[in-house]
Input
Amino acid sequence: MSALRAEREIDLIISFDFSEGDPMETLTETAKHCNELGISFPAIDCTKSDNNSPKGFYVFKGVKEAPTVIHIPLFNVENCGSELDAYIQKYTTFQGAYSPEMIEDLMKKAGENVLNHKEHLMEEIKAIVQQKSGTMPSSCLIA
Output
């Protein structure tokens, strides 16, 4: 919560969800706590489908003082397809050490998430920079 204080002037949060269970829980709980503490945070509107079969990329637009949140669940229907449940069951939070192959597989899935949505991610970052500065600095023209 301390990172979300108004004086920090946070404009964008990129949330990579690697938790077991509900891939939206961290965001919904954060929104709830921010509301209780009077900290600006975007509304997190998600459906039961988002919890059970998450997409690979979500944008929750901030208004006024609230930051925009980009949320990228590690396991989602885009990068796991019909094996979504198998991935979730294979990689539990409270299991023994992961083998090198499992770690490589996890890194691959995380990388796929970013690559699958690179254009959307860049569009959102550029829009926030542009909104903040009123123009698009040349240093933000990332390929």
Observations:
- The chain has six helices and three strands.
- Residues 100-116 form the longest helix (17 residues).
